[in-house]
Specification:
This protein is of the alpha/beta class. The protein contains 13 helices and twelve strands.
């Protein structure tokens, strides 16, 4: 049984709420900084080497990337936490900018999963040819020209600050006629179009007052998250063929150290089943799934419940963190959307949890890309030991005994 099958089998008993699909579906440390301090403003890119129509460019290595060093013998692993965002567009609520600023305050990195259609004007919708759907169809709305403009500014600034720009693909088709029915070849078409919308935004929008994005998306894009966490199995062969490094589309994963799937080609970074205060079942580590268990599909539930629901959401995120932090130190994954469901309480809850987590010693707030680099810098024997720990399982005898110690060589005998 491969790691993906094993994970899904084990997660099946985590409670009905844990398997609900998402409806839309440089690092910081608490004690020791893992990256140089950032300046007050966004750094200026070097002179770019423009690509294609000038929508993107090669500006060299991405700034604010921490060194990926192997654990020393007996060293306690860092507690990695990845905050990720599905869709990643800048609307009037300015949530993209809000969480960029929060990350900057704590020298943290995040992963922003961009929906490719967020850079395509609705007037050009005929350029999108979604698999198994009419030309231009989409289950998410096209952005206004102003919101596309604002999103482009956020994407460039985010990359320069050290954040990852992944993909949430394009049309966000879910359910009976959604992405779960697509073939690997259809996923390849969807990915190619998502990349094309990023790399040709100047042609498609006609904007002339914005600089090129400071990255080559063909190199930057190494992972994504599918709409509603559906269709992962058919996506994986395509992702591996394209040389991606990870996928974050799994639902209800256990809080264990990541393993590779697809013949060892890809790291599996699923959203995780975490404690849900006041309930015996667990919930998926994503805003939509917490909301669904509070107000159902109603995004404007009982206003009198907002304070309690916000507290419950925050405490759920923190309970998931504490379970990993105090035991196996498995990387912790939190997924969210830039949304205002139930009065914006989930945005407040995730910010509250973020601030608590960021202050804990040994925490590194990283992107999925940065986590991949760290994992691949480790000795295979060390990773196997970490992967042997179950959810909530502390290492026997403590980390020093579990991962071994290096004893100093005896002093030479004096003649």
């Amino acid at each position: 049984m491969d790691a993906l099958s094993r994970r899904n089998l084990l997660a099946a008993g985590a409670g009905a709420a844990a398997t609900l699909m998402a409806g839309c579906a440089s690092s910081g440390t608490g004690g020791r900084p893992a990256a140089p301090p950032r300046s007050a403003g966004s750094p200026k890119p070097p002179a770019p080497a423009l690509i294609g129509d000038g929508s993107t460019s090669d500006t060299g290595p991405q700034p604010h990337q921490p060194a990926a060093e192997p654990l020393g013998p007996g060293e306690t692993p860092p507690q990695f936490v990845v905050f990720s965002w599905d869709g990643a567009g800048e609307l009037d609520n300015r949530l993209f900018s809000r969480f960029r600023e929060l990350a900057k305050e704590h020298r943290a990195s995040m992963t922003f999963f961009l929906s490719g259609l967020y850079l395509l004007p609705e007037s050009k919708r005929e350029l999108y040819r979604p698999p198994q759907h009419p030309v231009g169809a989409s289950d998410i709305g096209y952005l206004s020209d102003q919101h596309i403009h604002d999103t482009l500014k956020q994407l460039g600034a985010a990359w320069l600050e050290g954040h990852e720009i992944g993909t949430h693909f394009n049309g966000h088709f879910c359910g009976a006629d959604g992405v779960g029915r697509w073939s690997p070849e259809e996923w390849d078409s969807e990915i190619e179009q998502a990349m094309d919308f990023v790399m040709k935004w100047k042609t498609n929008t006609g904007f002339t007052d914005l600089p090129a994005l400071p990255f080559d998306y063909r190199k930057e894009l190494i992972g994504g998250r599918t709409p509603c966490l559906e269709g992962q199995r058919a996506l994986l062969p395509t992702a591996a063929e394209r040389g991606w490094k990870y996928d974050s589309s799994g639902p209800g994963g256990l809080q264990i150290w990541p393993q590779k799937v697809q013949g060892g080609a890809l790291w599996d970074f699923p959203l995780q089943s975490i404690p849900f205060p006041g309930h015996t079942f667990q919930v998926l580590s994503m805003d939509y799934n917490i909301m669904f268990n509070q107000s159902g599909a109603n995004t404007r539930g009982d206003r009198a419940m907002y304070p309690d629901w916000r507290t419950q959401a925050r405490d759920s995120y923190l309970a998931g963190f504490d379970r990993a932090y105090t035991t196996n130190r498995a990387p912790y994954f939190i997924g969210n959307h830039f949304e205002q469901w139930n009065g914006g309480i989930y945005m407040d809850a995730v910010e509250d949890a973020f601030k608590v987590i960021a202050e804990r010693p040994g925490v590194r707030l990283v992107s999925f890309r940065q986590l991949v680099h760290w994992l691949e810098a480790q000795e295979p024997a060390v990773l196997r030991k970490l992967q042997s720990l179950g959810p909530g399982e502390a290492p026997a005898g403590g980390w020093r005994a579990f991962l071994g110690t290096s004893e100093p060589a005896p002093a030479p005998a004096v003649p």
